[in-house]
Amino acid sequence: MDVNLDTLARSFAAEGYVTTEDDQILMTVYLALKLGKPLLVTGAPGVGKTEIAKVLSKAFKADLIRLQCYEGLDEHKALYEWNYQRQLLRIQMMKDTDGLSEHDLFSDEYLLARPLLRAIQNTEPTVLLIDEIDKTDEEFEAFLFEVLSDFQVSIPELGTLVAHQIPMVVLTSNGDRELSDGLKRRCIFLYVDLPSVDKEYKIIRSKVPQAGERLSRQVAQAVTTLRAKLELRKSPSIAETLDWVRGMVALDAERLTPELIGKTLNLLLKTKEDLDTYNQGLGNIALVDQVLAWEQKNTGR
């Protein structure tokens, strides 16, 4: 694919996706595009894995086709199915079924294309997002990497359908299941970690520009403190950080206070166990004190 690293960086920045030199996101995405290989993105939920596919879709003005994986997903639900209701209706409408051939019933007219087949048949630039591949079983995974190797599909009634053009493929995994070596071998691997304070601040400023500079920095430090000091059942993701900031903006907040945290903490922590852990291990006043101490040390305020 004809892509320039600087152009790719500008595209990510234009869509508000924050990258840094040390996180390797841009370089890995660039190499996957240049080599024409699927990109396998792993990391905790909410760190921006799916967003990479959305940014690529916008950057290249490509159609985004999404296959949302789940337990029990099989190749027919991912690839194609026949519209049996329409086929049955056609049979019922034909008075003389002797003149009805297999071709009459098994044609494009009755084919229900699912995400994989739609991506293969699409004539426009395409980004194929295979989201949460780790929720499927090994049998489906084996089927998938065969499709991704050849980008062609054999349908017994229609023959072999070859991709009009190779789509950009992004697979995501939350790490619920170890993926096979076969799938990993066919992909370029990218691990997206939780952000540093500085990167999270930049993300907040990009996604929630209504939040002031001071509030954005304080929230970034507060979330980093929670992740580091508490053993939470579900550590706050970037998505939850942004929800927290938006809630504070809705309350016209300019800085963190114990009262503000008390009103909005349920936007950040999503289980009673984690709320109890927070209240017992840190609490609103202690969290604000630590944020203010960090602020004094780093900004002199």
How would you describe what is shown here?
With 301 residues, the protein is α/β, with parallel strands linked by helices. The protein has helices at 5-14, 25-35, 49-59, 75-78, 84-93, 102-105, 115-121, 138-150, 181-185, 197-207, 213-229, 238-250, 258-264, 272-281, 284-299, and strands at residues 39-42, 63-68, 80-82, 111-113, 126-131, 152-155, 159-162, 168-173, 188-191. It folds into three domains: 5-79 and 114-191, Rossmann fold, CATH 3.40.50.300; 81-110, no CATH class; 197-295. The protein has 15 helices and nine strands. Strands 2-5-8-1-9 form a five-stranded parallel sheet, sandwiched between helices. The chain is elongated, with a radius of gyration of 24 Å. It starts with a helix and ends with a helix. The model has no long low-confidence stretch (mean pLDDT 87).
Strand content: 5-15%
Order of helices and strands: HHEHEHEHHEHEHEEEHEHHHHHH
Q: Measured on Cα atoms, how large is the radius of gyration?
A: 24 Å
Shape: elongated
CATH C-level class of the largest domain: Alpha Beta
How confident is the prediction overall: mean pLDDT? 87
Number of helices: 15
